[in-house]
């Protein structure tokens, strides 16, 4: 078959799968169900929306129950724990499949890009039906068709790609907000990180494509977009007609109907003054910056290949706070990178004290095979890392509680996000700085920005009341 482009090809395979699924429905006298489980970051969640969109088109009814006709795990491998979690859950899935031999099990995502993982799956987890990676998520229908037709396991992992496939179906988790990929992959090669190996080289989408997608989303009721990339600050540099991330934000701001714009993740080395300026002037860009620090020690930052020093980082924070005084700043920190001394660790604590983060994701260094850091000497003993990790956590929590208390008693614009699952009659929403507030309200308010009086700061969130 000849196809005009990849999108057309995949749409053809969706139709083919649909016929096979319909035949099966007929035989069973019921609809087929599919359960997509996502591990990892926002990128993976976005990919899962695409996977669910394709499965929906094929005719599968989505379920959260893993007793489904098709279960697809979209995996993460950023830390060893993420991998262990998958192996554990596969054991559980196997038991379900033993009772229902017609069940299909698929694995995709970052973990599948590692050869040793796929080897292990092929050897010890032979009940898996479908394996594919991060570069060919869009090809789910084609791969599933092959599996349905042949009855044989299908494995398709690409080493990389230059292709960006647009215009395939996607089903959003929320009606009012949506992630939008602005770029794929990563070129930074931080020495601890496996992402560049599993997500490939950096590729930016054309700004026109991004704006077109956001306009369509806005027409369908989306009011908040999260622009996604591993390093959004280097967006557009490699395009034929280069454009800066700040310029892209200016264009997104023009899209009618969009009320809030967020983005992640920023790399400090590429954060420009132009970006700070655009954020300060903007009505729609949220006052929030996720700015991974990783370590406060310039010596370790160099070994991590981060391309900034402690002082550079603090200077960016100073500029951000000067231009946008009420900005919420959050971060990622790794404890126990090879060779980390008590002095290095104290530098990290020092930055935390100085920056006063609204919140911080703290991670214990995890050795990822194939990365330069995995080969480094002086891996820090586990007990030392644990002890440092606990001190780090105590400081981070203490500061974020204090930071949350600062807005207590004020009234803030809040995007109403969802019905509160715990307190009857309550809704949950977010401030511009990404903090969460619970307050009495009703479902019809979802997707609207309302004024909420923050009555009480409760550690990391608020209890509030709407004001008219
Ligand atoms: N070990 C621990 N944390 C890691 N991260 C990335 N790689 C590793 C690793 N090998 C953390 C970084 C990154 C976040 C997404 O995960 O802090 O910013
Ligand atoms: Fe996201 Fe990285 Fe995990 Fe992949 S490995 S899901 S890119 S955090």
Main beta-sheet annotation: 6 strands, parallel
Q: How far apart lie the N and C ends? A: 60 Å
Helical proportion? 25-40%
The total of beta strands comes to 19
List the total number of helices.
13
Placed side by side, the strands forming the largest sheet appear as 2-1-3-4-5-6
Give the percentage of residues in beta strands: 15-25%
Radius of gyration: 23 Å
Global structural class: alpha/beta
> What compounds are bound to the protein?
5'-deoxyadenosine, iron/sulfur cluster
Would you identify the regions where 5 or more consecutive residues have pLDDT less than 50? none
Which outline best applies? globular
Average pLDDT confidence is: 96
Quick rundown:
The chain has 468 residues and is α/β, with parallel strands linked by helices. 38% of the residues lie in helices and 21% in strands. The site of iron/sulfur cluster has 11 residues, from helix 2 and helix 6.
Any overview of this molecule?
With 468 residues, the chain is an alpha/beta fold. It has helices spanning 6-28, 42-58, 80-99, 115-124, 140-150, 195-199, 207-219, 245-253, 273-281, 298-303, 310-323, 342-355, 382-406, and strands spanning 33-38, 61-62, 70-75, 104-109, 130-132, 154-156, 177-181, 183-184, 203-204, 224-228, 260-264, 288-290, 328-335, 359-364, 411-419, 426-431, 436-440, 449-458, 461-466. It contains 13 helices and 19 strands. Helix 8 runs parallel beside helix 9 (273-281). The protein is globular. The mean pLDDT is 96.
